[in-house]
Predict the 3D structure of the following.
Amino acid sequence: MKEENAIIRKYLGDRIHSFRVELSISRESVAEKLGISKRTLASYERGEREITMQRLIELAKLYNTTYTNLTNYENILDDMGHLAIG
């Protein structure tokens, strides 16, 4: 289970990093708007730190997208077929 959580953290980190870069928003700006440090945001983006659903919702709003689009939840389940809900 720890390995699966690490894979999910990395996947989500890659997604939130890609959105930020695509929108040309600095890490400093995002961190400030979320009330967190740049270091914390960087650790989310690298998948080193678990990110809460609430924080993902805040990021989605900041990136002008939806939670589902930001997380690409369906693709996580496809990529991790053994985690499928059922």
Summary: Helices lie at 2-22, 27-34, 38-45, 53-62, 67-71, 73-79. The chain has one domain: 2-78. The domain at 2-78 is CATH 1.10.260.40 (434 Repressor (Amino-terminal Domain)). Residues 18 and 24 are 10 Å apart (CA to CA).
